[in-house]
Input
Amino acid sequence: MNKREFLKTGGLLGVASLLPSGRLFAAGTSAGSCVLIPTETAGPFPLDLTANTFYFRQDVREDRTGARLRLRLRILGDQNCGVMENLRVNIWHCDADGVYSGYTNQNGGVDTTGLTFLRGYQITDANGDVEFLTIFPGWYPGRVCHIHFQVYVNSNYSSISQLTFPITEKQAVYTDNPTLYPAGTDPLTPSQDGIFSDGYQYQEATLTFNSGTQEYESYLEVTVQGTGVPTGLQEVRNTEQFALGQNQPNPFTDRTVIPFRLQRTADVILDLYDLNGRRVARLEQAGLPVGEHAMTVDLIELGLPPANYAYQLEITNASGTFRSTKLMTALR
Output
């Protein structure tokens, strides 16, 4: 297996307690010298992962069988290598047989129209991390084993790329799990692949096996444009109506406060979602006036365990309904 250390956080729950600095530099880089992730094609099977909130989920496997893979991505900004929180990260990839969900005429006529397996998105936490539970992807003719991902910074800019794995460790997954991967080892190396042949130094994720959880674990740092990115129309429209702040403190233990500012009188709904997209709590306040406001989230009162939660503020005023989402981290 890969001798490089896998930077394990034990999942998204409680990551901040394990990474107190909230910052990590890629090997060979220093603050202010991170290298942008290469831009790659979205591929023939991207779909719109955010068209349905169903895709906000940590476990993307559905009914697909394969070796369990826990994939963690850390998103850094290119200006100072600092972690970037509250960004949406999409992933999608093929199953063990090299087939994507949602398309027809694959691998000799396989039709998966209407299916949604192995697709999903998460929001980066205070450490810039997202984590997905999936299966190790197979391969298909002409492409080396890979996973697609998109880091959505705002409506005017997103970084689309792909990652692959070290050759020896990748082939070991296939040889150690022959019933799950009947096609056998991957016939291509990244240098033989049309996408990675121009270099993949910053796109090779770690790959190790955790004997305790019986899962493969993978990690990659991804650098995107962190500052000076134009704000899109939707962000402008939101800021004309309200501004949602980061909960304070964050991370927290049992209780935190979410600040926001209203530009017009509005009815306000605060929803909390777990990392598999289930709404677990709702707080409402009607007729709030213009100005600064705050809503308190008490996990004990709500009967919720410490975890990462996405919080979405929805405001309705005379101009319509507007929403914004961020992530909070509650420690054990």
Remarks:
- Residues 167-176 form the longest helix (10 residues).
